[in-house]
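I'm stuck. Please check this protein.
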Amino acid sequence: MAKNKSLFKIEGTLDDVTFYKSADGYLVRTKGGVSRERMMKDPAFERTRENMGEFGHCASMGKMLRSATDGLAKKAKDSKLSSRLQKAMSEVKKLDGHSARGQRKVSEGVCTDAGRNVLKGFDFNMNAPLKSVLDFPIELDVESGKTVLTHFKPKEDLNYPQGATHFSLQSAFLNLDFSTGIYNIKKSDVLNVPIDLNESTLIMDPNGAPEGSGTHFYFLFIAFYQEVNGELYLLKNGSYNVLNIIGVV
Protein backbone atom coordinates (compact mmCIF):
# COMPACT_ATOMS: atom_id res chain seq x y z
CA MET A 1 0.00 0.00 0.00
CA ALA A 2 1.52 3.30 -1.10
CA LYS A 3 1.24 6.63 0.73
CA ASN A 4 0.40 9.90 -0.98
CA LYS A 5 3.11 12.42 0.03
CA SER A 6 2.17 15.20 -2.39
CA LEU A 7 0.97 18.62 -1.32
CA PHE A 8 -2.50 17.78 -2.64
CA LYS A 9 -4.65 15.53 -0.47
CA ILE A 10 -6.65 13.74 -3.15
CA GLU A 11 -9.60 11.43 -2.56
CA GLY A 12 -11.30 9.48 -5.35
CA THR A 13 -10.47 7.32 -8.38
CA LEU A 14 -8.47 8.29 -11.44
CA ASP A 15 -8.30 5.59 -14.13
CA ASP A 16 -7.19 2.50 -12.14
CA VAL A 17 -5.71 4.41 -9.22
CA THR A 18 -7.69 5.13 -6.04
CA PHE A 19 -6.74 7.81 -3.52
CA TYR A 20 -8.34 7.57 -0.08
CA LYS A 21 -7.98 8.77 3.50
CA SER A 22 -7.46 6.37 6.38
CA ALA A 23 -6.37 6.55 10.02
CA ASP A 24 -2.79 6.18 8.72
CA GLY A 25 -3.02 9.14 6.35
CA TYR A 26 -3.72 9.44 2.61
CA LEU A 27 -3.09 6.16 0.79
CA VAL A 28 -3.00 5.03 -2.82
CA ARG A 29 -3.91 1.69 -4.35
CA THR A 30 -4.34 0.33 -7.86
CA LYS A 31 -7.14 -1.74 -9.27
CA GLY A 32 -6.26 -5.30 -10.11
CA GLY A 33 -6.07 -8.85 -8.80
CA VAL A 34 -8.33 -11.84 -9.24
CA SER A 35 -12.01 -11.34 -10.05
CA ARG A 36 -14.49 -12.07 -7.28
CA GLU A 37 -16.30 -14.63 -9.45
CA ARG A 38 -13.13 -16.67 -9.95
CA MET A 39 -12.15 -16.38 -6.32
CA MET A 40 -15.53 -17.72 -5.19
CA LYS A 41 -15.58 -20.69 -7.61
CA ASP A 42 -12.05 -21.70 -8.57
CA PRO A 43 -10.79 -24.72 -6.54
CA ALA A 44 -7.37 -23.09 -6.48
CA PHE A 45 -8.77 -20.45 -4.13
CA GLU A 46 -10.36 -22.83 -1.63
CA ARG A 47 -7.94 -21.78 1.14
CA THR A 48 -8.66 -18.13 0.32
CA ARG A 49 -12.40 -18.71 0.63
CA GLU A 50 -11.88 -20.42 3.97
CA ASN A 51 -9.82 -17.48 5.23
CA MET A 52 -12.41 -15.02 3.96
CA GLY A 53 -15.19 -16.85 5.77
CA GLU A 54 -13.36 -16.88 9.07
CA PHE A 55 -12.24 -13.27 8.60
CA GLY A 56 -15.85 -12.17 8.15
CA HIS A 57 -16.97 -14.25 11.11
CA CYS A 58 -14.39 -12.63 13.40
CA ALA A 59 -15.41 -9.16 12.23
CA SER A 60 -19.04 -9.99 13.06
CA MET A 61 -18.13 -11.31 16.50
CA GLY A 62 -16.16 -8.16 17.27
CA LYS A 63 -19.11 -6.03 16.23
CA MET A 64 -21.38 -8.20 18.36
CA LEU A 65 -19.28 -7.60 21.47
CA ARG A 66 -19.12 -3.84 20.83
CA SER A 67 -22.90 -3.67 20.42
CA ALA A 68 -23.48 -5.76 23.54
CA THR A 69 -21.70 -3.18 25.73
CA ASP A 70 -24.88 -1.09 25.44
CA GLY A 71 -23.13 2.14 24.46
CA LEU A 72 -20.05 1.89 26.67
CA ALA A 73 -17.79 1.09 23.70
CA LYS A 74 -18.94 4.27 21.96
CA LYS A 75 -17.83 6.32 24.95
CA ALA A 76 -14.32 4.84 25.15
CA LYS A 77 -12.74 3.80 21.87
CA ASP A 78 -9.84 4.56 19.56
CA SER A 79 -9.75 4.80 15.77
CA LYS A 80 -8.55 1.20 15.36
CA LEU A 81 -10.91 -0.50 17.81
CA SER A 82 -12.70 -2.53 15.12
CA SER A 83 -9.49 -3.96 13.67
CA ARG A 84 -7.94 -4.63 17.08
CA LEU A 85 -11.04 -6.43 18.31
CA GLN A 86 -11.25 -8.42 15.09
CA LYS A 87 -7.63 -9.51 15.59
CA ALA A 88 -8.43 -10.60 19.14
CA MET A 89 -11.45 -12.56 17.91
CA SER A 90 -9.25 -14.24 15.31
CA GLU A 91 -6.94 -15.44 18.09
CA VAL A 92 -9.96 -16.81 19.98
CA LYS A 93 -11.26 -18.51 16.83
CA LYS A 94 -7.96 -20.34 16.34
CA LEU A 95 -8.57 -22.07 19.67
CA ASP A 96 -11.63 -23.86 18.28
CA GLY A 97 -10.29 -27.42 18.32
CA HIS A 98 -13.42 -29.06 16.89
CA SER A 99 -14.44 -27.30 13.66
CA ALA A 100 -12.93 -27.74 10.20
CA ARG A 101 -10.71 -25.07 8.66
CA GLY A 102 -12.88 -22.28 7.32
CA GLN A 103 -15.62 -23.03 9.86
CA ARG A 104 -13.85 -22.34 13.14
CA LYS A 105 -15.95 -20.25 15.52
CA VAL A 106 -15.34 -17.74 18.29
CA SER A 107 -18.16 -19.41 20.24
CA GLU A 108 -16.02 -22.57 20.45
CA GLY A 109 -12.69 -20.87 21.11
CA VAL A 110 -14.05 -18.75 23.94
CA CYS A 111 -15.05 -21.91 25.81
CA THR A 112 -11.36 -22.56 26.49
CA ASP A 113 -9.31 -20.92 29.23
CA ALA A 114 -6.84 -19.68 26.62
CA GLY A 115 -9.65 -18.15 24.55
CA ARG A 116 -11.08 -16.27 27.51
CA ASN A 117 -7.60 -15.05 28.44
CA VAL A 118 -7.22 -13.49 24.98
CA LEU A 119 -10.15 -11.17 25.72
CA LYS A 120 -9.46 -10.58 29.41
CA GLY A 121 -7.74 -7.23 29.85
CA PHE A 122 -8.75 -5.93 26.42
CA ASP A 123 -8.76 -2.11 26.27
CA PHE A 124 -11.34 -0.48 24.01
CA ASN A 125 -9.37 2.77 24.02
CA MET A 126 -5.62 2.27 23.55
CA ASN A 127 -5.14 6.00 24.15
CA ALA A 128 -6.22 5.34 27.74
CA PRO A 129 -5.42 1.72 28.74
CA LEU A 130 -6.57 0.75 32.21
CA LYS A 131 -3.10 -0.11 33.52
CA SER A 132 -1.82 3.37 32.72
CA VAL A 133 -4.76 5.01 34.53
CA LEU A 134 -5.59 2.70 37.42
CA ASP A 135 -2.74 0.45 38.56
CA PHE A 136 -4.62 -0.57 41.69
CA PRO A 137 -6.05 -3.88 42.99
CA ILE A 138 -9.57 -4.46 41.65
CA GLU A 139 -11.76 -6.86 43.60
CA LEU A 140 -14.25 -8.67 41.37
CA ASP A 141 -17.03 -11.00 42.49
CA VAL A 142 -17.75 -13.10 39.40
CA GLU A 143 -21.09 -14.31 40.79
CA SER A 144 -22.64 -10.88 41.31
CA GLY A 145 -20.40 -8.75 39.10
CA LYS A 146 -19.68 -6.42 42.01
CA THR A 147 -16.42 -4.49 41.62
CA VAL A 148 -14.66 -2.90 44.60
CA LEU A 149 -11.70 -0.57 45.11
CA THR A 150 -10.76 -0.75 48.79
CA HIS A 151 -9.02 2.12 50.66
CA PHE A 152 -8.76 4.14 47.47
CA LYS A 153 -7.21 7.64 47.42
CA PRO A 154 -7.86 9.21 44.01
CA LYS A 155 -5.01 11.71 44.06
CA GLU A 156 -2.47 8.97 44.91
CA ASP A 157 -3.92 5.88 43.25
CA LEU A 158 -5.22 7.35 39.99
CA ASN A 159 -3.19 8.62 37.04
CA TYR A 160 -5.48 11.45 35.92
CA PRO A 161 -5.10 13.93 33.04
CA GLN A 162 -4.19 17.56 33.64
CA GLY A 163 -7.21 19.68 34.41
CA ALA A 164 -9.35 16.84 35.78
CA THR A 165 -11.09 17.58 39.07
CA HIS A 166 -13.44 14.56 39.14
CA PHE A 167 -13.74 11.10 37.68
CA SER A 168 -16.56 8.63 37.32
CA LEU A 169 -16.63 4.85 37.63
CA GLN A 170 -19.13 2.34 36.32
CA SER A 171 -19.04 -1.42 36.07
CA ALA A 172 -21.01 -3.72 33.78
CA PHE A 173 -21.76 -7.44 33.84
CA LEU A 174 -22.50 -8.90 30.40
CA ASN A 175 -23.71 -12.35 29.41
CA LEU A 176 -23.13 -12.92 25.68
CA ASP A 177 -23.82 -16.04 23.65
CA PHE A 178 -21.60 -15.81 20.56
CA SER A 179 -23.43 -18.68 18.86
CA THR A 180 -26.85 -16.98 18.94
CA GLY A 181 -26.01 -13.29 19.39
CA ILE A 182 -28.31 -13.12 22.41
CA TYR A 183 -27.01 -11.02 25.28
CA ASN A 184 -28.06 -9.37 28.50
CA ILE A 185 -26.16 -6.69 30.39
CA LYS A 186 -26.45 -5.18 33.85
CA LYS A 187 -24.74 -1.93 34.79
CA SER A 188 -23.94 -0.36 38.12
CA ASP A 189 -24.89 3.18 38.98
CA VAL A 190 -22.30 5.79 37.98
CA LEU A 191 -20.05 6.93 40.84
CA ASN A 192 -18.85 10.53 40.55
CA VAL A 193 -15.80 11.07 42.75
CA PRO A 194 -13.66 14.19 43.36
CA ILE A 195 -9.94 13.77 42.77
CA ASP A 196 -8.61 14.46 46.26
CA LEU A 197 -6.72 12.73 49.09
CA ASN A 198 -9.80 11.41 50.87
CA GLU A 199 -9.71 7.64 51.29
CA SER A 200 -12.84 5.61 50.62
CA THR A 201 -14.02 2.22 49.42
CA LEU A 202 -15.68 2.47 46.02
CA ILE A 203 -18.31 -0.17 45.23
CA MET A 204 -19.90 -0.72 41.84
CA ASP A 205 -22.71 -3.27 41.96
CA PRO A 206 -24.76 -4.15 38.85
CA ASN A 207 -27.53 -5.35 41.19
CA GLY A 208 -27.94 -8.83 39.82
CA ALA A 209 -26.47 -11.17 37.26
CA PRO A 210 -27.63 -10.96 33.63
CA GLU A 211 -29.90 -13.71 32.35
CA GLY A 212 -29.08 -16.32 29.74
CA SER A 213 -26.31 -18.73 28.89
CA GLY A 214 -23.02 -17.80 27.31
CA THR A 215 -19.79 -16.09 28.25
CA HIS A 216 -19.64 -13.67 31.17
CA PHE A 217 -17.78 -10.40 30.61
CA TYR A 218 -16.98 -7.88 33.35
CA PHE A 219 -16.22 -4.28 32.34
CA LEU A 220 -14.85 -1.24 34.12
CA PHE A 221 -15.52 2.21 32.66
CA ILE A 222 -13.72 5.39 33.78
CA ALA A 223 -14.29 8.96 32.61
CA PHE A 224 -12.68 12.26 33.64
CA TYR A 225 -14.31 15.64 34.23
CA GLN A 226 -13.45 19.21 35.08
CA GLU A 227 -15.68 21.18 37.44
CA VAL A 228 -16.43 24.75 36.37
CA ASN A 229 -18.87 26.84 38.41
CA GLY A 230 -20.47 23.75 39.89
CA GLU A 231 -20.92 21.95 36.57
CA LEU A 232 -18.95 18.88 35.45
CA TYR A 233 -17.62 18.87 31.89
CA LEU A 234 -16.21 15.77 30.19
CA LEU A 235 -12.52 16.24 29.37
CA LYS A 236 -11.53 16.36 25.70
CA ASN A 237 -14.76 14.77 24.44
CA GLY A 238 -14.05 11.52 26.21
CA SER A 239 -10.62 10.83 24.69
CA TYR A 240 -9.33 9.97 28.19
CA ASN A 241 -12.15 7.52 28.87
CA VAL A 242 -11.24 3.95 29.82
CA LEU A 243 -13.17 0.76 29.04
CA ASN A 244 -11.50 -2.50 29.97
CA ILE A 245 -12.62 -6.14 30.17
CA ILE A 246 -11.45 -6.91 33.69
CA GLY A 247 -12.75 -10.48 33.68
CA VAL A 248 -14.08 -13.22 31.38
CA VAL A 249 -15.69 -16.38 32.71
Q: What stands out?
A: The chain has three domains: 1-32, 42-119, 130-248. The chain has a mean pLDDT of 89. Residues 46-68 form the longest helix (23 residues).
